[in-house]
Specification:
heterodimer; A: 59 residues; mainly alpha; 76% helix; B: 204 residues; globular
């Protein structure tokens, strides 16, 4: 059983978290929350990819 | 008493950050000192842990702009709950992958439990602490506090962990889009010719 994940996307998600932290530092809370949700959705999509697509199963 | 509760709420943010960061630093120790490579689900759990402490960090950073407002405090712990929920699902998925009798699990255990089991416990504790803070936001909201050196150190630690994780996953993946489930080498170093890929894949 072999499954795959998109590691370049992984690095981008960590960087979007860093951007989120920087925006909170600057006091731009709305933009920071937007960056947070981009990271959160990225994690959910990666997990979905790992749990279903990579194992060639469907929900 | 009310001032004590407010300070308790503020220091709980520091406690959250330090607790989750110590777990991530423990994962670094296992990766670099014991030579184990993080699998895709391990990386996803690291992401979820960083999402949970982003909420606490946002509360600390709100104190830079003046008194912490009610909605900033509740939004921070709401973000922590979101990270804890998705992290728990990922950790449960990995536990379920290795739940069959006789399965050795992925990686070596730490203090008797595998890292993904520890991750589930951490996410549960974060969710519980965040729930208590959300339920009594009015009492725990610290209002006017100073963004002191302790808060700066905590936020700096969070930033350092995010940056280091981004670098680590990039080195592990190189310029490849996809990698096997059980990584056995740092692909970027292999591609650059600095090391060679192992012939025998690691056991899952």
């Amino acid at each position: 059983m072999v499954s795959y994940t998109l590691r370049m996307v992984d690095a981008a998600i960590f960087l979007s978290m860093l951007v989120c932290l920087g925006l909170f530092w600057r006091g731009r809370r709305l933009a920071a929350k937007f960056a947070f949700f981009i990271a959160l959705i990225g994690v959910i999509l990666l997990f979905k990819h790992h749990a279903t697509d990579a194992l060639n199963i469907s929900l | 008493m009310s001032r004590f509760l407010q300070l308790f709420g503020y220091w709980t943010c520091h406690f959250n950050i330090l607790t989750v960061s110590s777990v991530l630093l423990g994962a670094y120790y296992i990766q670099f000192a014991e030579g184990e490579f993080p699998c895709p689900l391990c990386i996803l759990q690291r992401m979820a842990m960083l999402l949970t402490i982003l909420g606490s960090a946002s509360i600390l950073l709100a104190s830079r702009q003046g008194p912490i407002e009610f909605h900033s405090y509740s939004a921070g712990y709401g973000m922590s709950v979101l990270g804890a929920v998705i992290g728990s699902i990922i950790a449960l998925r990995q536990i379920a992958l290795h739940i069959a009798p006789g399965d050795p699990g992925y990686g070596s255990p730490a203090f008797g439990l595998h890292l993904y089991t520890w991750a589930l416990i951490v996410f549960g504790v974060v969710a519980a602490v965040s729930g208590v803070n959300l339920a009594w936001t009015k009492r725990f909201n610290p209002h006017a506090v100073e963004f002191g050196w302790a808060s700066k150190c905590c936020v700096g630690l969070v930033a350092l962990l995010m940056l280091s994780n981004a670098i680590i996953v990039f080195i592990e993946a190189g310029f490849h889009i996809s990698l096997p489930d059980n990584p056995t080498c740092y692909q970027l170093f292999v591609d650059l010719g600095w090391t060679t890929a192992p012939l025998v894949p690691a056991e899952s």
